[in-house]
Amino acid sequence: MGSETRGPQGFETAIHSGPNTVAEFHQRRSVVSQLRQLLHQTPSIVPLIVLVAATIVFGIILGGRFFSAYAMTLILQQVAITGIVGAAQSLVILTAGIDLSVGAIMVLTSVVMGQFTFRYGLPPFFSVACGIGVGALIGYINGFLVARVKLPPFIVTLGMWQIVLATNFLYSANETIRAQDIETQAPLLQVFGETVRVGGAVLTYGAIMMVVIVCVLAYVLRHTAWGRHVYAVGDDPVAAELAGVQVKRILISVYVLAGIICALAGWALIGRLGSVSPTSGQFENINSITAVVIGGISLFGGRGSIIGMLFGALIVGVFSLGLGMYGTDPQWTYLLIGMLIIAAVAVDQWIRKAAA
Amino acid sequence: MEPILKARGLVKRYGKVTALDHCDFDLYPGEVLAVIGDNGAGKSSLIKALSGAVRADEGQIFLDGKEMHFSSPLDAREAGIETVYQNLALSPALSIADNMFLGREIRRSGFMGKYLRTLDRKTMGRLAREKLNDLGLLTIQNIDQPVETLSGGQRQGVAVARAAAFGSRVVIMDEPTAALGVKESRKVLELIQDVRARGLPIVLISHNMPHVFEVADRVHVHRLGKRLCVIDPKLATMSDAVALMTGAKQPEASMEAA
């Protein structure tokens, strides 16, 4: 053996006589495949199209009643809580997890904010901080169990959902704090229920907070290293780890941040209800997952945008308000939302084929 | 000459299975060292120990004569050891540039970078393109396209370019040609020679004997969890190498590398 084994082997000499250009495909790209490519790059387009279409259809049916600034902003107010919780849910789902405890965290933190103020007489500002701290702590426990103990997120948060909800009822003794009491003694708790009027548009601070949270997270996910790492972890955690992403730290930070955002939702919930009620917001975990799924974020992680989630939440809002104004049985809303969820996941699967 | 990367007495057990049994390893500056061995010989465990992906139960690893304790791939990377894993360790949905800079992103200067932690996509894109051009991977037009839209060979190229761009001491490549066609394999072998020409030593794990004998300066034969011998590909034949790694033959002094 010796020099003849150095360099390309005999059978490879043919390579050099072959064409050296990059393969070019004169593919007649059909409209459908181009559409799929576009959707693959910007998955939030689908919910945007559905949102605009739904708005136009209801606008035509219901006329000016629906197309008013008031109705439009009413939708924003109604989806504020779902949108904020959905932002937390989006973060977790982007890491290929799921958080079933979001609604329970929201209710418990709102109860903590109320009870700390009224039972212990703490200043409202301090109670709010404690509520946010409780949200972060529960998020940390979720994150620790998922990242370090390596339990499936579904199971961890299913358990946490029950634990937090039970804690909520035990701690609050199922007692509601009345709106009048909050209004006179701790108006800070209701701050997100206050409104800004611009012409016919009525915006609550809660709705504004939702938009701000979504915009901030959209920026963070797209333009910071942490955001890119969240996507990488959701995409392929093993690859991310080997490529130098601190997967466990990212996962824990995502759950903690989700807990904090849920606590902010709890604060906004007091504003929306006026009172602190331990029985409210029971379905927010399901609503938030609905918004995320309709918004085109993949349940398998790593794909989708948080703006899509906002569109998803707004679609639900448009359907509820539109069908409500039309005077149908509210069950029709649920029926249509159910169909949308299944359609959204079907579209997600179809888009994924563009990559394969 | 002092080895740049040296391991002594590495032991790694998984339950009752001993993957590494007091294994030694030496990589000298500027060389391509191939590691060959039968399936289950412990090649992967050796590489994982060297690249920080697993922690050995016993033994020592020295880089430039200094003892290292890697507890994660990040530690090894900070020490200048870059690894191209068999599964490539790329995130399919992220862009080429994002993947190349994963875990070592560049932030913008000034307020935006310092307080808002904004990524400097422009610089990262430019550097990524430069690195790919350096290695002759010009066929990638768009640095912002997701990695999942690339062919197997192009993905391999991105992974190799990432390692070559950031590896300052050692580049480890695990089966870099296993999933590739003839033409892409040729490209990767050329890449290996380019990287060596720039003075970086390379550890190449491969099952492909022609490739090993073509690019390696020395061949580390791994058997039953330890180094059986190191042979010189100019003195030994491919059938010798196969006989050694399967245990059909005992090492002879005539083919051992100096």
From TrEMBL, chain A:
Keyword S-adenosyl-L-methionine recorded: no
Gene Ontology CC terms: plasma membrane
Topology in membrane: Multi-pass membrane protein
Subcellular location: Cell membrane
InterPro entries found in the cross-reference section: ABC_transp_permease
One MF term in the entry's GO annotations: transmembrane transporter activity
Keyword set includes Nucleotide-binding: no
Membrane-traversing stretches: 45-67, 79-105, 125-147, 154-171, 202-221, 250-270, 282-300, 307-326, 332-351
Keywords of the record: Cell membrane, Membrane, Transmembrane, Transmembrane helix
Designated name of the protein: ABC transporter permease
Species of origin: Jiella flava
Top-level taxonomy: Bacteria, Pseudomonadati, Pseudomonadota, Alphaproteobacteria, Hyphomicrobiales
